[in-house]
Amino acid sequence: MIRKVIKQANQAYTITLPIEWVRENNIYKNQEVDVTLQDRSLIISNKKEVSVKKAKLLLDSIEKIALGRNIQALYAKGIDEIEITSKEDISSKIIEIMAEIIGYALVSQNKNVYIIKDVGGGNYSNLDEIFKRVFQMVLMFYESAIEDLFGKECETKESLDNRDKEINKFCLFLERAINKMSYSDPIKGRALFTYSFSLEKIGDEIHRLWRANLNSKIKKTDKLKELLLLSKEGLDLTFDFYYTKDKSLAQKIYKIKEKVRKNAELLSKQESFDFARHAIKIIEDAGDLNHLNLIMND
Length: 298
Prior knowledge:
The chain has three domains: 6-46; 54-118, Translation Initiation Factor IF3; 127-297, Methane Monooxygenase Hydroxylase, Chain G, domain 1, CATH 1.20.58.220. Helix content is 56%, strand content 13%. The chain is flat. α2 links the parallel β5 (54-58) and β6 (81-85). The strands form three sheets. It has a four-stranded mixed β-sheet with strand order 5-6-8-7, covered by helices on one side. By secondary structure, the protein is of the alpha+beta class.
């Protein structure tokens, strides 16, 4: 990692600290850090201990079926260690939940007390890559859905559920990464978290769209396919907007959203407006992402 040396007016020389290291160690303004001279090297260390965030769950106070939701919420919040107390053996249930969470593991079990810890190393410096991967997974999920619906229709409920779980797992990791980072601009931090949460919602809507075909065979016409492809185009442009910051795309996405709504109203009952409403919801959620893009770029 290369850093440029800057000469100050008082003859002092300074360099900037890598923002990833600053965020990971919760460095704040005027905080003291330890600087060690070692031959031709300078070693900069964080003097304070990095705090470990802990939480406790009593299974008696929540439904067993809601245990996963509670653990996921604490995970996304940035909790590093969870202590769970239960009157019954829930080890198999916890292990099942851990399979859907990146970095968490059941590290100890003592009678009725279970300890879950983040054993993934806690490196969230590559946030942009995580974000890009999650977004691309959602786009590929929609593309695969359209290809299968108007192609071989070979997907099963189980395979769809596995696809959805994989996307949810990475969305959850993205939410955690955002909460573990510190932002000088709190508006951007909140906008990014909302963005990641919205991506998970879009993934869920694609899942519902795909499953709708398994539950009831629908007449799939060219008009219906065109509607889905138009909806996906809007989502693709939202991805482009995030990375290019080209505000002219905002108007294009808005026009696509209006066209999807209008075309959906023209579908016959046989083509199922109920089926098309999933496409409408996806493009509307993409419009919300469009709004967040404008907030972060202004």
